[in-house]
Amino acid sequence: MSAARYRPSAVLFDLDGTLLDTIGDLAEAANRMLVELGRPPRTQDEIHSFVGKGIPNLVRRCLTENAVATEDEIDAAVPVFRSHYQVVNGASTRIYPGVLETIAELRARRIKLAVVTNKAEAFTLPLLERMGMAAHFDTVVSGDTLPVKKPDPAVLHLACERLGVAARDALMIGDSANDALAAQGAGMPVLLVTYGYSEGRPVDTIECDGLLSNALQALDLIASA
Length: 225
Fold this sequence. Notes:
It is a single chain. By secondary structure, the chain is α/β, with parallel strands linked by helices. It folds into two domains: 10-22 and 93-221, 3-Layer(aba) Sandwich (Rossmann fold); 23-88, DNA polymerase, domain 1, CATH 1.10.150.240. The protein is built from nine helices and eight strands. α1 (23-36) packs across α4 and α3 (55-64) crosses α4. It is elongated and about 55 Å long.
C-alpha cells in the first residue's frame, strides 16, 4: 500500500460519472424529449459526451450538436426533458464498483462526506434516496443550490462551510474538467476517476492531482482525518 498523500477532514464527491452511472436514464430522458419535439434520437455515446454541466447544457447540446435550434426552442425543451427525467430518474442507474466500500471506509475514518453536483436538487436528492446512499453524506450541494455551479468554486466553498472545514482541508473526487477547475479555484486537491463522463474529453488530458480507475484507489492516498 502506498503512503497516504492527503489528510483531508472532508471529501467532496461529484455524482454523475463518479459515484453513479446515470447515463442510461439521462439518455432515455433526452431521447424521449427529442421524440416529443419531433427530432431524431441521439445515441447513448453522443449523450454521454454531453453530460457534465447540468440539464440546460445537456438539452442545448442535444438540440444543437450538428443541428440547429433557437434559444426559444432550447428554453422550451428544458421542462420537457425534466418531465421525462423525473419519470426515469434512477431506473437504470447503478453504483460504480468500489464506491460503497470507499464511502464506508472514509466514514469509519471519521472523514466528513459531501456530494457536489451540477444536477438539480429535484433530481439529486430523490436519486440518492432511491440508490440507498442519502444517509452516507453530511451535506449535498446541487446544481441549483446557488446561482452558479461547477466549475465555479463557490459550490465547493459552500459544501465546506456546511461541513465546518476549510477548503484547504478538503479533497475533491470527480470525473471532469468542471470538477478539477472548481477544486483548483477553491484551493483543494482533486482526484479524477477515469471511468466517468468528462464531456467526451480524455480525462488524462485534464490537470489534476491524480487519476483513479476505481474509487477504492482513493483510500490508499487518504489518511484518517
